[in-house]
Write a structure and sequence with these properties.
This protein is mainly alpha-helical. 78% of the residues lie in helices and 1% in strands. It has two domains: 1-183, MFS general substrate transporter like domains (Growth Hormone, Chain: A, Up-down Bundle), CATH 1.20.1250.20; 188-412, MFS general substrate transporter like domains (Growth Hormone, Chain: A, Up-down Bundle). The protein has a two-stranded antiparallel ribbon with strand order 1-2.
Length: 412
């Protein structure tokens, strides 16, 4: 792994840790700022709202800024947001600080994905992007449990300060190891927005919102499902969440090479297998070992579809991939909110604790339908480039990368 990719992975590690650590510290935060736990849960929504707003906004503002400089500026904003979170005296300012912290999230992932794809040979672009995403999955195994433990022992403010330190380390690594990547002559907000108008980009974002919503329909309620149905103790759920993170890491590792070889088939397979795993979970959840095995597969398949969706958006946005790549993370946060909402509706309707898994399977199948529709609409015999370097693109949608390194649109 080039050191520049490692630097980008550290950025992703910090983003993943700050995004999910709040969930594990809600009781401490609620006590610290004098609100109820449900009210403190709005801090999670504040961060997600920041991601949704910030991804297109900051990417557009920085459309003419060289990628390395933009990464440094966004990482600096990430550090400021976490320091502000640690120092916020009351709930209102803490809410604003979490919104501020979420603003650079999507833009950092979007710009980072474009930079990562340009650090390697075109036929290895998806592998490079997946290596950056490894930082996010490792955060679920190490960063979130460590941040939660630190916050419980030394106070919740210490967790945000520690995450700010991670941001400073990432900032230094970016400055040292990421090479300068100049913007093209056509760069600019209008150029990026014009690329976002591509029908295939719109379908790709819809796949992310709907298909990945199936993952979050279960993930959002995993702890109560395990305690109420499987019979695990509260103390065991942290280990299970780490196991979920292990599955996500394995899925990310596998997705990169497969996406480089066959982009659309990898996406189709991931969504179909995710639906099957979620249906299976509704049966295996009643027994500990089968439930844990299925959970690992769900975690793996959830992260497995991230890389092909990211690369598809970058391909279809052609020579203006940055905003499409960033908006993908806005889509994932909408999937988080939508999946949790639909899973909650099923529970409120009295359908039982296994119902979120079936809702998730339906969403994954709907996402597969959208992906297949995109593939069918794309069958016009033309080929499009994923702009990853001064040459052409990365992954073929149908098979091995041809000599010209272009994405094949002729098959779905």
């Amino acid at each position: 792994m080039p050191l520049a990719l490692l630097a980008l992975a550290v950025v992703a590690f910090g983003l993943g840790t700050t995004e999910f650590a709040t969930m594990g510290l809600l009781p401490q935060i609620a006590d610290g700022v004098g609100v109820s736990v449900p009210d403190a849960g709005n801090l999670v929504s504040a961060y997600a709202l920041g991601v949704v707003v910030g991804a297109p906004l900051l990417t557009g503002i920085g459309a003419r800024v060289p990628h390395k400089r933009l990464l440094l500026l966004l990482s600096g904003l990430f550090v400021v947001g976490n320091v502000a979170s640690a120092l916020a005296p009351g709930f209102g300012l803490l809410f604003g600080a979490r919104f501020l912290t979420g603003l650079p999230h999507g833009a950092l992932f979007g710009v980072g994905a474009v930079v990562a794809s340009r650090l390697v040979a075109p036929e290895r672009a998806a592998r490079a992007v997946s290596r950056m995403f490894l930082g996010l999955t490792v955060a679920n195994i190490v960063g979130v449990p460590a941040g939660t433990a630190l916050g419980q022992q030394l106070g919740w403010r210490s967790a945000y300060l520690a995450i700010a330190v991670i941001g400073l380390v990432a900032l230094a690594a970016l400055a040292l190891f990421v090479p300068h990547q100049p913007r093209g002559r056509q760069s600019g907000i209008r150029h990026e927005l014009r690329a976002m108008g591509n029908r295939q980009v719109a379908i790709g974002l819809a796949v992310a919102v709907v298909g990945f919503g199936g993952f979050f329909a279960v993930y959002s309620y995993l702890v109560p499902i395990l305690t109420e149905v499987t019979g695990l103790s509260d103390s065991s759920t942290t280990l299970v969440l780490a196991l979920y993170g292990v599955g996500m890491t394995l899925g990310t590792l596998v997705a990169g090479p497969l996406t480089d070889r066959a982009l659309r088939p990898t996406l189709y397979a991931g969504l179909a297998l995710l639906a099957a795993a979620l249906v299976t979970f509704s049966f295996t959840v009643h027994s500990t070992v089968p439930a844990l095995v299925t959970i690992t597969f769900i975690g793996a398949l959830g992260s497995f579809i991230t890389t092909p969706v990211q690369m598809l958006l970058m391909a279809k946005a052609k020579d203006a991939p940055t905003m499409a790549a960033a908006s993908n993370h806005s889509a994932f946060n909408l999937a988080n909110a939508g999946g949790a909402w639909l899973g909650g509706l099923a529970l409120s309707a009295g359908w039982g604790w296994t119902s979120p898994a079936l809702v998730g399977a339906a969403l994954a199948l709907a996402g597969l339908g959208l992906a297949l529709t995109g593939g069918l609409l794309n069958r016009d015999g033309r080929r499009s480039e994923v702009i990853t370097s001064s040459g052409a693109g990365a992954a073929t949608e149908a098979g091995p990368v041809p000599a010209a390194h272009r994405t094949g649109d002729s098959a779905s």
